[in-house]
Amino acid sequence: MIGVIERPAAAPPPVGEPVIGMVDVGMTYPNGKAALVDVNVSIPAGDFVFLVGPSGAGKTTFIRLVIREQLPTAGRVTVAGYDLARLRRGQVPTLRRRIGIVFQDFRLLPSKTVFENVAFALEVTGTPRSEIKRRVPQLLSLVGLHEHDDHLPNQLSGGEQQRAAIARALVHDPAMLIADEPTGNLDPVTSWELIQLLIQINAMGTTVLMATHNQEIVNAMRRRVLALEQGTLVRDEAGAAYEREY
Predict the structure, then answer these.
(1) What residues have CB less than 8 Å from 67, skipping those under 6 apart?
(2) Number of C-beta neighbours around residue 14 at 10 A
(3) Burial label, 90 (beta-carbon count in 10 A; 0-12, 13-18, 19+)
(4) ∠ CA 118-21-205 to the nearest 5 degrees?
(5) Among 64, 76, 87, 96, which Cα is nearest to 17's?
(6) What are the mean pLDDT values of the chain's consecutive 10-residue runs (246 residues total)?
């Protein structure tokens, strides 16, 4: 069961600013490979967006630019009100606290319990212990893991591990949650349960960007779809299916 708690709405970017904005963005690697070409995207607060495309289409580069692992070779990227090209190195951790990220392979610390994995993301930013003791149980209740707080990752199912990863991603009330193939290692039933959790998180005010190859989920959800092919944004369509419908 997914818990329901009251959670402060994620702080939006400045009025008029998209949560994610790309203007004429290009990314060409030193070997000459163009990973993104003239991408223009505006994702407002509260949107739920699927990022789709075949392997090598540019999805990973898109995400790396959003979290400022890389800077584009052309164009402008803004995230949560920050112009990433103008961001000083010391401001990057602040930006990344505005972004929650979950991956296909969970990336939990194997020697720490579920509680400790979520708490660690707060400890590294100097959060008081009293706040950690209050906040972590709330998040574990939200994702339905309040009865597994003392379990190690290897004692959890794949779906439970991904829920723990989502709880950890939400510790700083991010403006957006980026989910990079979050159902890639999960069976169909567990995948749908995870999607329901992402829908709930989105309804609470967090923008969700989900990169996926799961056509069934995209087709059933009918949300906004950004489709990349060979680095080019070939489709930006609301209420869309995984592939273009004629």
Answers:
(1) 79, 96, 99, 101, 178
(2) 7
(3) exposed
(4) 45
(5) 76
(6) 41 64 96 95 96 94 95 96 90 90 91 96 92 95 94 95 95 94 92 95 95 95 96 96 86
Distance in angstroms (rounded) separating the CA atoms of residues 159 and 174: 22
In this structure, are residues 180 and 133 in contact, taking their beta carbons and an 8 Å threshold?
no
pTM of the model: 0.89
CA 123 centroid distance within chain: 21
- Which tokens go with 231? 């680095």
pLDDT at residue 89, as a whole number:
87
Helix crossing, 158-169 with 129-142: angle to 10°? Answer: 130
Is the C-alpha dihedral spanning 75, 38, 26, 56 positive or negative? positive
Of all residues in the chain, what percent are helix, strand and coil, respectively (each to 5)? 35, 25, 45
Q: Are 148 and 160 in contact (CB under 8 A)?
A: yes
Alpha helices in 67-176 (DSSP H): 92-96, 114-123, 129-142, 158-169
Give the whole-angstrom CA distance, residue 198 versus residue 177: 9
Sheet holding 224-229, edge to edge: 99-103, 176-180, 207-211, 48-52, 224-229, 232-237
